[in-house]
Amino acid sequence: MNLPIQPPYFPMEAITRDEIPEGPQWQYEPKWDGFRCLAFRDGDEVQLQSKAGEPLARYFPEIVEALLGLKAKHFVLDGEIFISSFDQLLQRIHPAASRIAKLSKETPASLVVFDLLVDERSHSLAERPLAERRPRLEAFAAKYLESNASLTLSPATTDIQQARAWLASAGAKLDGTIAKRLDLPYESGNRDGMVKVKNLRTADCVIGGFRYATKGKVVGSLLLGLYDREGLLNHVGFCSAIPAAEKKEITKKLEALIKPPGFTGKAPGGPSRWSTERSTEWEPLDPKLVVEVRYDHFSGGRFRHGTKLVRWRPDKSPLQCVMP
Question: In 3D, which of 243, 262, 248 has the Cα closest to residue 219?
Answer without folding.
Answer: 248
